[in-house]
Design goal:
heterodimer, A: alpha+beta, 4 helices, B: three-stranded antiparallel beta sheet, two-stranded antiparallel sheet, 2 helices
């Protein structure tokens, strides 16, 4: 199971510390977990550098949460889905995508979603 | 009477230094059943004259380069005549890291008739290469 403990920063600048992020492969609509060895070959350097040695002890709150992910096409029907813990506009975010773009011809970005119960407090309006 | 209007908004993409002029179609408040799409001050500040090379974002076309722009999907304090919930999608033209992003989301949530909303990040269905 390729799961990594990382600090995830959402687009509003809120940092979710020590959350578990999963890298996986989609083949013909089925998803498979990748192995650590497999990942080492293509994961961006900035991603590997951001992995924390701790155990993941937190989850990102909310029901409709979806994290920011990069989707890369490996072959015709095979994709890798890599979570991106870096907020857009940061240098690491740019490096993350530049790195992937050099290795794969087709790199897509899936944006995150922030749950309606948490959006108000995140922008300072209170619950 | 028109139910929509088209505004041209300068939009910062998630990728540094990348920006595009988006065609943003919003609902107008014309009668009881038409609830206006929030368009707060900070979004209006990014309005530009009609572009000759816009990134078209009418969701039904296949020409889109960005599949979805950064937005707040607002749940409005209204019902359609058939009793369904009314939702409006408000655009967030500022890039994460820009303090205006948070302020824009706050302004949208405080707009008239907005109950609450879901923040939606940018989504690309076409290779992002052209923006790097």
């Amino acid at each position: 199971m390729a799961r990594y403990t990382m600090d995830y920063t959402n687009d509003l600048g809120i940092v979710h510390q020590l959350v578990s992020l999963r890298v996986y492969r989609v083949d013909a609509d089925e998803d498979f977990s990748t192995s650590l060895d497999e990942d080492a070959d293509y994961l961006p350097v900035v991603f590997s550098q951001a992995i924390r040695p701790n155990r993941a002890v937190c989850t990102i709150p909310g029901r409709t949460r979806t994290i920011r992910q990069a989707v890369v096409q490996v072959t015709g029907s095979s994709f890798w889905v890599i979570p991106c813990p870096f907020p857009a506009g940061s240098e690491v975010f740019q490096a993350f995508f530049t790195d992937l773009n050099q290795r794969f011809s087709r790199v897509l970005l899936l944006g995150e979603r922030v749950d309606r119960s948490y959006l108000r407090p995140y922008v300072g309006l209170g619950f | 009477m028109a139910r929509y209007e088209v505004r041209w908004v300068l939009y910062d993409l998630d990728f540094a230094n990348a920006a595009a002029v988006l065609r943003f179609r919003r609902f107008l408040s014309t009668n009881q059943n038409d609830i206006a799409t929030p368009f707060p001050e900070l979004v209006a500040a990014r309005e530009v004259a009609q572009s000759t090379d816009p990134v078209l974002l009418a969701s039904r076309t296949r020409r889109n380069v960005i599949q979805d722009f950064r937005a707040v999907e607002c749940c409005m304090d209204a019902r359609t005549p058939t009793g369904d919930a009314v939702e409006r999608t408000a655009i967030v033209p500022y890039r994460p890291g820009d303090p205006n992003l948070k302020a824009t989301v706050a302004q949208i949530l405080q707009s008239d008739k907005v109950v609450n909303g879901i923040y939606r990040g940018e989504r690309h269905a076409e290779p992002i290469q052209r923006w790097l």
